[in-house]
Amino acid sequence: MSDVTTPRKRLFIRTWGCQMNVYDSTRMADVLAPLGYAPTEQQEEADMVILNTCHIREKASEKVFSDLGRLRELKQEKAKAGQQMVVAVAGCVAQAEGAEITRRAPWVDIVMGPQTYHRLPEMVARASRAAGAQIDTDFPVDQKFDHLPEVSAEQGPIAFLTIQEGCDKFCSFCVVPYTRGAEYSRPVAHILAEAKRMVAGGTREIALLGQNVNAYHGEAPDGSTWGLARLLYELAEIPGLARLRYTTSHPRDMDDALIQAHGKIPSLMPFLHLPVQSGSDRVLQAMNRGHKADAFRRIAEKLREARPDLALSSDFIVGHPGEKEQDHQETMSLVRDVGFALAYSFKYSARPGTPAAGQPFQVPEAEKDARLAELQALLRQQQDEFNRSVVGREIDLLVTGPGRHPGQIAGRSPWLQPVHVMAPGFTPEPGTMLRVRLAEAFPNSLSATLLSEELACA
Ligand code: SAH
Ligand code: SF4
Ligand code: F3S
């Protein structure tokens, strides 16, 4: 427990990768708070630095090593001044390359995999006593969630809640099943309690997180197993919780109950991130995605039948081993058929230990570049079209805080777009819902005009 005599120490956390890492970083801060660690934005003044890393593509994991180089200098400077700085590497690079980290960066004090954060206090204590890195990259049988402290109540108006972790899908290109381990769903009661606490602390929008969130199958209080749809209906009953989302889903687990939930739960926002990766059946098969391109088209149609204003976002990989120009054109045609409001697209990056990395017929870099450019031009055009298509609509805007310019309010639309409203002299609290009309579309945001002041939350 913290007490008034505990000296205040400063904690700097740098986060790469997915939203799961963002969530984990907040949980690590929660675990360290009772030891007297308060967050800082200044790496230089930190007593402890945690790099929460991502291993998904080569570029992502290389960034960690360049950051560690800079930290070494900082640590040496501090030592000269008689100060200590604990350096910890967490996340998926720690899990996948723990030994490599201690070899290349022996000044690192702690290396910890994503399933071990609840043991951080113990590792910090050991690190300050002993020389040499403390390494913890187990996949403990007792899940980390059972041992983490309760989530701190005030998460802000928009917050994440992890309900599922790990992945059993083993897509050919992906490191996640190796870095995050097997699929695990948290029990329903824990999720409901955490959500209620967040709402009591002022959260209005919760995004449920999981590497395969729609494969959720958690234990319910009556001993039965609930899928994601059932959980969403229950969460939607929490008074004051105005908006629900979930991410990231796999097309294979997009069952009818979940699709229908989009039509039946008004607080389930009309925006869904559903990665498809490729529009070619041949490549989808090589990727071990377990569905065909037309199955994805059908899911998109059914979702829009259930909720006509639903917008989709997705992830794409170009240049998976064996991908030919014809396959790429099939991806382009899927994009044209479905239409995406937002998308992330990547060049295939060979990851050590994954099945695709060892396959023959790796696509030359120049072809990957050309395909990515063609795909991104189309996706950019679709994003612009989507943003323009909602101009003129009246929406509920969830206020996140003041905007960048004086007199502006910033918020989030139902479709995840950042929106700013000019309203000098009016400073609604974050978490307020405002009725606005979308006025103008910019490349990554929209402006809006105020229609009415506060709109009571459900
Ligand atoms: N669970 C999600 C994706 C997690 S990783 C799903 O099932 O789709 C986020 C995205 O990174 C993926 O959707 C994929 O598009 C991309 N990605 C993963 N591995 C990659 C690799 N080896 N090279 C390039 N992009 C990759
Ligand atoms: Fe990776 Fe595939 Fe699992 Fe997504 S479903 S995390 S892409 S293995
Ligand atoms: Fe990266 Fe690990 Fe997330 S590899 S994308 S941080 S699960």
Report the principal-axis shape.
globular
Uncertain segments: 454-458
Number of strands: 21
Give the distinct bound molecules: S-adenosyl-L-homocysteine, iron/sulfur cluster, FE3-S4 cluster
Strand content: 15-25%
How many helical stretches? 13
Lateral arrangement of strands in the main beta sheet: 2-1-3-4-5-6
Rg over CA atoms, rounded to whole Å, is 23 Å
The mean pLDDT is 92
Helix content: 25-40%
End-to-end Cα distance, whole Å, is 37 Å
From the helix content, strand content and strand pairing, which structural class follows?
alpha/beta
Biggest sheet architecture: 6 strands, parallel
Can you describe what's shown?
Helices cover 35% and strands 23% of the residues. α8 packs parallel to α9 (256-264), α9 (256-264) runs parallel beside α11 and α12 packs parallel to α13. It starts with 8 loop residues before the first strand and ends with a strand. The chain contains 13 helices and 21 strands. It is an alpha/beta fold and 458 residues long. It has a six-stranded parallel beta sheet with strand order 2-1-3-4-5-6, sandwiched between helices. It has a five-stranded mixed beta barrel with strand order 17-18-19-21-20. The protein has a three-stranded parallel beta sheet with strand order 7-10-13, sandwiched between helices. It has helices at residues 19-32, 58-80, 91-104, 120-129, 144-147, 176-179, 188-200, 228-236, 256-264, 281-286, 293-306, 325-338, 365-389, and strands at residues 9-15, 37-39, 48-53, 86-90, 110-112, 134-136, 158-162, 164-165, 184-185, 205-209, 217-219, 225-227, 243-247, 271-273, 311-318, 342-347, 394-402, 408-412, 418-422, 433-441, 446-455. Iron/sulfur cluster binds next to α6. Residues 17-18, 20-21, 54-56, 91-92, 175-176, 179-180, 211 line the site of FE3-S4 cluster (F3S).
